[in-house]
Amino acid sequence: MITLVTYALFFLYLVTTIASAYPNCDQLPPHGIGPLFTFGHTILPKKHWALSEEILYAKTKPYPTILSLSQFFYGINDSLTISGNIPVVHQKSLTNTRAGGLGDCYCNLNMRLLNNKTETHDYRIIGVAGVRIPTTTGVFGESIYTYNTTSFFLGANCDALTRDWYLYYDFGTLFFTKRSCRQFGHLINFNAGIGRSLCFNGNYLSLFIELSDYYSKPDRINNVPLLNTGGNILLIGPTLRYAHKSGFLAQAGIQLNVSEHLRNRLDTIGYVAGGYIAYTY
To answer: How far apart are CA 84 and CA 70, in angstroms?
Structure first.
């Protein structure tokens, strides 16, 4: 873990050194669609909308997973944005048997609760609430998108933009309802990131270090805890983000497992890597 943290700090130092060769941005970058490994940072202007497509590969045990996320956003007003997501999941078993199908679709509302904006900084607090609909079909086992039970999400985000830096952190909880006699353990997610922005001709290139932590309580069957479920995983890694002045956005990154405390050592995540494109109209 110490080696990976050292690499992350070296990456941030390298980004800062490269950025020093470029002139400072003369205006604030746009917030746009949120960073890659996070949620809820998207607030669109009134009647604007966006479409996005995200592909993630998770080196998970026992089922490596490819996840495709088709998402839309719509600005109800300047402080309230609704979003929806249709996930498609492909998994592979230890015997190389493959399965695929829909994951749980969801709908979220992002509401800007506080905004302090000047010519040199833009600080926001955003509240997030949502529901996930059990539409999972044809997959091997549960993942964050495939529990196949109704669940509810509550979260809070903070982010800050300057002309050259983007910082954020957020906290969210996913509450599951029962599926038959099984109660899945509620999930807690914390994310944080720091990015250095470079600007040229009205376009922005940002280099991030993003951290994600996932903690889940043990599942229960007939109210009896399953002691081989639940635990904590910490991921960290770099992300590259490009925002064009036309409204086009592209992101790509990877997060590596740097720490875990799991009740089942066979149920883990080695790394998550993915890419993301979006366009705002």
So the answer is: 8
% of residues, the chain, pLDDT over 90:
63
DSSP β-ladder status, 248-262 and 231-243: antiparallel
Confidence tier at 24 by pLDDT (50, 70, 90) = low
By DSSP bridging, strand 165-176 and strand 203-216 are unpaired
Distance in angstroms (rounded) separating the CA atoms of residues 163 and 196: 9
C-alpha distances out from residue 68 to 48, 58, 87, 217, Å? 24, 11, 6, 26
Q: Which tens digits make up the pLDDT trace of 214-223?
A: 999 999 998 8
Nearest to residue 250, comparing CAs of 203, 210, 211, 190?
A: 203
Domain extent at residue 13: 2-280
Question: Virtual CA dihedral for 163, 71, 240, 203, nearest 10 degrees?
Answer: -40
Domain count of the fold of the chain: 1
Strands (E), the chain: 49-60, 65-77, 80-92, 98-102, 105-117, 121-133, 151-162, 165-176, 182-183, 187-200, 203-216, 220-221, 224-225, 231-243, 248-262, 269-280
CA pair distance 94, 117, nearest whole angstrom: 52
CA 54 to chain centroid, in Å, comes to: 10
Residue-level pLDDT at 156: 97
CATH code assigned at 115: 2.40.160.40
Q: Are 67 and 55 in contact (CB under 8 A)?
A: yes
Which among 151, 63, 74 has a CA at the least distance from the CA of 105? 151
Structure tokens at 10: 């070296």
Listing DSSP states for 156-188 in one string gives EEEEEEESSEEEEEEEEEEEEPPBTTEEPPPEE
